[in-house]
Amino acid sequence: MTLVSSLCYSPPLHYSAFSNSTLASNCYAFSISNLRTQIQSSVSTNVCTQKIDTTLLTIAESFYEDELWAAACLRVRSFHEFRPDTFGVQDHTRYLAEREFEALKERVSGKRTGFRRVSCINASLPLSHISTLSDDLCSSCKFSTNGEDRIVVGTLDLNQCLSLPDEIAGMKPEVVGAYITRAYLSNVCVAKELLRNGLGYALIEKSKLVAHDWGITDLYVHVAVDNEAAKKLYTKSGFVYESDEPAWQARFLDRPRRLLLWTESRDYSNFCALLLRYETRQGERGSAITGNHIILDLTRPKSTLHISSTYGPAP
């Protein structure tokens, strides 16, 4: 396992339950080298999504090549769909994965011009938990950590950009040198077999925590105007409309016109304190809960957030 970057480490998120949400996907293409597995093409028009045991789910930044490769493969199978009988489809899919992998490694390691800092954030599950779900997913998106085989089931990039060619740039904050405190999400995707498990929402919440640790105050994402599922997810995650791409630019770049959405990057240690009621017991350190969905364990690092389906008082 090759370490790409040790910068900006933030402890992983371990989730115990999620509300339903539909996945979003969008732009920028990035990735790295050394092919590790043969990527198989898969096309399914009627994908039956499966509920998962979210106590086994981990959401964390990725710094190792084998996990970045798994993320690149997930992006290819999410953003490209080919007929299985298409000539040379496996070779073409492999080429796309290698290209994505090389660019992602370059950006995460800080070698890509125009990017100040980039983090690849992945959601993963143990292979043993979803081994019967999809042979393609389990073979192409697999990596190993601490002696355990895991599958990347969701991924996104958090980008602190010095420049943003061919994209609408955010306007907040309105100060000199604002690019230092502004970041963009990209490549947001979840395995199609595991949609409606809240993975997209959870990835975005983790990205907000990482962004805050970087000193980011304003977070942006680009989304195609006709991508209703993505817009629904980002709205649920607190994003609002800021601007949109001129029609002529979209035609010139031969792509769907995009919207630019904005949200603030909050300090969750303070944000949760406003939303949650506290219960302190004799001889115990504090814990904060709501009556329904969120539990924030104050004994853990501030960027470790647990989502729970527990209702009522703390156990």
Can you put this structure into words, describing what you see?
- The protein has 315 residues and is α+β, with helices and mostly antiparallel strands.
- 27% of the residues lie in helices and 25% in strands.
- The chain has helices at 65-79, 89-108, 127-130, 135-140, 199-214, 228-236, 247-253, 268-275; strands spanning 13-15, 57-62, 115-126, 142-145, 148-161, 182-190, 218-224, 240-244, 258-264, 277-279, 287-289, 294-297, 306-307.
- The protein is globular and about 50 Å long.
**Spatial extent as radius of gyration:** 19 Å
Q: Enumerate how many helices there are, as a single number.
A: 8
Percent range for helical residues?
Answer: 25-40%
> What share of the residues does DSSP label as strand, in percent?
25-35%
Low-pLDDT runs of 5+ residues are: 16-47, 268-315
Order of helices and strands: EEHHEHHEEEHEHEHEHEEEE
Q: How is this structure best summarized?
A:
With 315 residues, the protein is of the alpha+beta class.
Primary descriptors:
315 residues, alpha+beta, 9-stranded mixed sheet, 4-stranded antiparallel sheet, 8 helices, 13 strands, 25% strand, globular, disordered C terminus
What layout of secondary structure does this protein have?
Elements: E1 13-15, E2 57-62, H1 65-79, H2 89-108, E3 115-126, H3 127-130, H4 135-140, E4 142-145, E5 148-161, E6 182-190, H5 199-214, E7 218-224, H6 228-236, E8 240-244, H7 247-253, E9 258-264, H8 268-275, E10 277-279, E11 287-289, E12 294-297, E13 306-307
